[in-house]
Write a structure and sequence with these properties.
7 helices; disordered N terminus; 238 residues; mainly alpha
Length: 238
């Protein structure tokens, strides 16, 4: 009788441990794909906001620039601009607080940096899941293979039938667990690397925007530094 390899046979013939490993790998795969899809959609959205932020400095005043950034509450560039404006107004209008000992430049820098740090933490949330899946899934699959081979050899030894056709089926089905582990880990690793690159691009744009905002709130103009010379681009305060 021919042996038929397949995941269905692994599930039907496997014991509790084999099935638990298969369910665990399935859960890890679903979790990693959910994270990849959600974070990829976020990156697409934030890159759209980054393109809108480049038009911010072509506005006649701050209010018009805010209109170009849109009304999305999740827009980090809009949140950064609002935080900078509130920090500037707070420093200018209050006189009896500890922060008054700080220079306005330092105060705005801290406010903008705190906003960027909060967004960075949010941007990187979920990446730990992909890192964990990518590093552990192959070993979980290997554990399932070792366990399956052990029980297959025990069953073969008990039956006393050690011909190639009797050995190849159970051993081959046990090796499927290693393949499943790799199938779960590889997308998680590739997704992690792609998301890290996307996050880095967004954070670079956000830091550049924060630098221009700092110059604007401190000096009243955005500083643009081309390769040959620096030029001050004014924008009216709203």
């Amino acid at each position: 009788m021919e042996s038929h390899f397949g995941i269905a046979n692994v599930w039907v013939q496997g014991d509790f441990v084999t099935r638990a490993v298969a369910v665990l790998l399935l859960g890890m795969s679903l979790a990693s794909w959910i994270v990849i899809l959600i974070k990829a959609l976020d990156i697409v959205k934030f890159k759209k906001h980054a393109r809108a932020a480049r038009d911010f400095w072509h506005s006649e005043d701050f209010a018009a620039g805010m209109d170009k950034l849109g009304n999305d509450a999740d827009n980090p560039f809009r949140h950064l601009a609002l935080e900078g404006r509130e920090a500037t107004a707070h420093h200018r209008n209050t006189k009896a607080h500890l922060h008054d000992s700080l220079d306005v430049s330092d105060w705005i820098t801290r406010s903008l940096r705190n906003t960027i740090d909060e967004f960075t933490a949010r941007l990187q949330s979920g990446l730990a899941i992909l890192a964990s899946v990518g590093s552990t899934a192959p070993f979980i699959g290997l554990f399932g293979t070792v366990w399956g081979i052990y029980h297959a050899l025990v069953a073969i030894g008990t039956s006393g039938q050690s011909t190639i056709d009797k050995v190849a089926g159970p051993i081959g089905e046990a090796l499927i667990m290693t393949a499943l582990g790799l199938a779960v880990a590889i997308p998680a690793v590739l997704g992690y690397n792609a998301l890290v690159r996307g996050n880095k691009s967004i954070l670079n744009g956000l830091n550049s925007f924060a630098h221009d905002l700092h110059a604007y709130f401190v000096t009243g103009a955005r500083v643009s530094a081309p390769a040959d010379q620096a030029k001050v681009l004014p924008i009216k305060k709203g």
